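Tokens for chain A. Residues wanted.
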């Protein structure tokens, strides 16, 4: 495999060997640019010389030009294989702006009627068309193969080539049929292009396309203008609304994993005065196209989307990309965040992370083939490592894509701007691996953690692990800490998770080597997102009917004294204490808002309000206070219909999976709906479902726990107390039955 980062030398293998002057003249003539970016010129020369070419270039690096310019210069038609109809349309429209003849570029896909297909073929046969776009599904159709055999093909371009690889984040099985179809149509040089490929994915692509000898042009994956930030996933809707309002008028994309969440969030943003639209594959094609155009034409500021949106969308001034849910892989994360700041300007990449989301993604994989599960879970581990790591995020990302970043501090990610304390966990990691070796490969992390912390559970007793010398050897740390140590062991490849019996862990040869010769392993103490979520809940200075802000209240009393003294009045005449207390709850920063404070009114607001408003405004800005006036997150979902349907369905003893499917809910979302119904006092009889779903003994154990042992209805406490033999779903179901029977 040849690795290239400059212009290929030696005799031309094809029909073109253009001088620099000619190539630059064509660039100016067709596209209006006076110079190439990065590796573009070297890539184009390789394509013009008729050689296979592999291009790794980050989003915004100018991949499209690498095949567009050669296509315009060479004899015949370039066949461009692209995964999305929206992407094809976007590129065809762009190419037509560079030519007086609209036939210069066409696409053939399922969106065209027979008349349109006939027009495309006529333009191709007449020699008007230089670029012909196909989806891989359309390329394989017999009539298209027969048509392409009749024409001269200059080269094949496979865009978004990572779709070929099972290890890529957008794996498309039909992409694996491209090489056999090309062989059937007729030989021509290949150019494969992608913005995201690890060394493994790169090898997989080249092997599958039969282009192992291709010249490889790899640009740096470093996007120095992008700011990478991970936040704990707490009250995400409010945080997102606040972030967008702080960046008013800027273009942004918000990615969610489910279509349902896309629609709910878009609706919520609109209800809160934000110009937003939804985009996902389940929408009507015309609606998707309209929403995309509205975003490109800046009639809306925000698109809320699944990953279906954005691939190849050429909008250079997207100023932020928000991930509501953590992506399934770092490739997906890199490509989606890469849509920010393509013009080199500001690009804020904000991701909300909770380890519960990772567990949910793992659960979704359970019905898939084992090989696919193995790949998916390994990719997820990389995502966890990135999210929880205290290292420079830029260094972590570039290392993942096989590129070394030598700076210790990039200055443009949350970990570098706000470095977090770390401890050397080498001694604890060695201890955990030693105990894991001792107990063997039949247990999950939580069982190992129970042994380390000295917690006697039924399972620990039944295996006699409470009699081990190592039992309680790590009791100076809590379960959360040991969980982090073992995650680190898995991420470092010192222990393995059993794929078929997922969750069971075992030590491997690298772990054995670590026990023999431990090296420092730095673990971040304060990237515990679960506790950060709880901390955020208790510390967010957002008022609105709750307790007054005591610091502000004290400052307002001091100011009242000064104003009273200046006006030679008793302080209570200026404002009474209840008025100051209301100010320290409502944070008024305009005269109109001050008039609405208890006991103030128009006269007092005009007479005394200005200095108080000035103080409150400065305080709000300094403390980054979320004011209720700014952050009234209006609810838009009317769940009454869902509630009635669920109650009636349970009365009819419908299967829960059928109820969830009927309302387009995930199973855990259905349970949340049922919990809300039950907690409001409605009694439901779900015994029929529990009896078919789980063993009587299990159900009885959980029921007795809530009846006799539980101090609260906390799910986390129940999971910890009951142990790994009971799933969260089982505990939630029995808890619902318990509340109905004992409380409603």
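Reply:
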């Amino acid at each position: 495999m040849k690795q290239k980062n400059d212009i290929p030398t030696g005799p031309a293998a094809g029909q073109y060997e253009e001088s620099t002057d000619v190539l630059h003249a064509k660039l100016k003539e067709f596209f209006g640019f006076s110079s190439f970016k990065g590796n573009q010129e070297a890539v184009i020369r390789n394509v013009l010389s008729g050689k296979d070419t592999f291009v790794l270039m980050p989003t915004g690096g100018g991949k499209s030009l690498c095949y567009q310019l050669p296509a315009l210069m060479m004899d015949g038609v370039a066949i461009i294989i692209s995964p999305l109809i929206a992407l094809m349309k976007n590129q065809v429209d762009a190419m037509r702006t560079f030519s007086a003849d609209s036939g210069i570029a066409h696409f053939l896909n399922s969106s065209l009627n027979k008349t349109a297909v006939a027009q495309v073929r006529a333009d191709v046969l007449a020699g008007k068309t230089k670029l012909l776009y196909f989806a891989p599904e359309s390329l394989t159709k017999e009539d298209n193969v027969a048509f392409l055999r009749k024409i001269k093909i200059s080269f094949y371009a496979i865009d978004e080539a990572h779709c070929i690889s099972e290890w890529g984040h957008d794996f498309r099985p039909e992409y694996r049929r491209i090489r056999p179809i090309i062989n059937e149509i007729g030989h021509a040089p290949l150019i494969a292009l992608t913005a995201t490929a690890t060394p493994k994915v790169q090898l997989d692509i080249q092997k599958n396309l039969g282009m192992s000898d291709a010249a490889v042009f790899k640009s740096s994956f470093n996007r120095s203008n992008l700011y990478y930030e991970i936040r704990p996933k707490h009250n995400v809707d409010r945080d997102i609304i606040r972030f967008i309002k702080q960046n008013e008028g800027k273009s942004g994309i918000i990615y969610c994993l489910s279509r349902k969440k896309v629609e709910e969030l878009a609706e919520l943003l609109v209800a809160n005065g934000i110009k937003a639209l939804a985009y996902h594959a389940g929408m009507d094609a015309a609606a998707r196209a309209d929403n995309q155009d509205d975003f490109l034409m800046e009639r809306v500021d925000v698109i809320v989307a699944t990953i279906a949106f954005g691939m190849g969308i050429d909008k250079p001034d997207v100023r932020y990309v928000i991930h509501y849910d953590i992506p399934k892989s770092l490739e997906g994360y890199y490509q989606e965040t890469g849509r920010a700041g393509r013009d080199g300007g500001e690009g804020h990449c904000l991701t909300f992370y909770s380890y519960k989301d990772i567990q949910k993604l793992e659960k979704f994989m359970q019905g898939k083939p084992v090989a696919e599960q193995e790949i998916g879970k390994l990719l997820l581990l990389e995502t966890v490592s990135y999210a929880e790591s205290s290292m420079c995020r830029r260094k972590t990302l570039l290392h993942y894509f096989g590129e070394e970043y030598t700076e210790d501090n990039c200055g443009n990610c949350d970990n570098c701007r706000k470095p977090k304390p770390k401890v050397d966990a080498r001694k604890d990691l060695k201890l955990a691996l030693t105990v894991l070796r001792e107990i063997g490969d039949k247990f999950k992390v939580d069982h190992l953690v129970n042994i380390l912390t000295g917690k006697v559970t039924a399972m620990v007793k039944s295996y006699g692990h409470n009699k081990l010398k190592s039992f309680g050897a790590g009791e100076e740390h809590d379960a959360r800490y040991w969980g982090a140590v073992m995650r680190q062991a898995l991420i470092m490849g010192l222990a393995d998770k059993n794929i078929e019996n997922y969750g069971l862990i075992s030590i491997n040869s690298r772990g054995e080597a670590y026990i023999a010769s431990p090296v420092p392993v730095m673990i971040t103490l304060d990237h515990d997102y679960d506790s950060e979520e709880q901390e955020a809940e208790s510390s967010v200075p957002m008022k609105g009917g709750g307790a007054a802000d005591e610091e502000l209240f004290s400052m307002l009393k001091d100011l009242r004294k000064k104003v009273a003294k200046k006006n030679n009045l008793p302080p209570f005449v200026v404002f009474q204490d209840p008025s100051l207390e209301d100010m320290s709850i409502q944070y008024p920063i305009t005269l109109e808002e001050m008039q609405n404070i208890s006991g103030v009114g128009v006269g007092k607001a005009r007479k005394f309000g200005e200095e108080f408003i000035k103080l409150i405004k400065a305080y709000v800005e300094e403390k980054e206070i979320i004011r209720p006036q700014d952050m009234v997150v209006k609810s838009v979902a009317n769940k009454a219909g869902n509630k009635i349907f669920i109650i009636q369905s349970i009365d009819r003893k419908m299967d829960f999976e059928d109820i969830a499917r009927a309302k387009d809910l995930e199973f855990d979302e259905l349970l949340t709906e049922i919990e809300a119904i039950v907690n409001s006092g409605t009694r439901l009889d779900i015994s029929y479902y529990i009896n078919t779903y789980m063993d009587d003994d299990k159900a009885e154990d959980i029921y007795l726990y809530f009846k006799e042992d539980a101090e609260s209805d906390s799910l986390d406490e129940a999971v910890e107390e009951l142990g790994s033999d009971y799933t969260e779903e089982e505990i939630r179901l029995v808890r619902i039955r318990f509340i109905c029977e004992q409380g409603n």
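The chain is about 50% helix and 10% strand. The chain has five domains: 2-218, 226-417, 422-525, 550-623, 640-743.
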